Amino acid sequence: MKLEKYLEILPKSLWVTTCNSGSCNGCDIEIVATISPRYDIERLGMKLVGTPRHADVLIVTGPVTKFMKEKLLRIYNQMPDPKAVVVVGNCGASGDVFYKSYNLEGPVDRIIPVDVFVHGCPPRPEAIIEGVAKAVLKLERLRGDLQKAGEGQ
Question: What is the mean pLDDT of the chain?
């Protein structure tokens, strides 16, 4: 494949933002380990950004508490299209040990659409990197669909 084709598929580095929707911080500690020099996620072209307005991927940790439901929806709606959502940890995927808690609105996929689940309590940094890489594949497919739609007009 020519270099121009690679640039068309992924025109810039992947920008990632995170949201703790009620986790115990175990998954957040693993995300911090992912950006540390040992795993150095930026060498793979992924960069953590502080605002959802610049992000391509949203990483959510924890089950969604009643307090965080509206905030999670607001963060998701601020992200430009195309976007992907990665849920890190068992709590965000199913509620895990907090499933029947009175204060939960449910797992993340009941609130916003989720593209990739990274299971574990907490998952290792390698699994988080793999989950974000799966989100890249989804974004590449969406960009391809958008390009085809643009060519048809």
Answer: 85
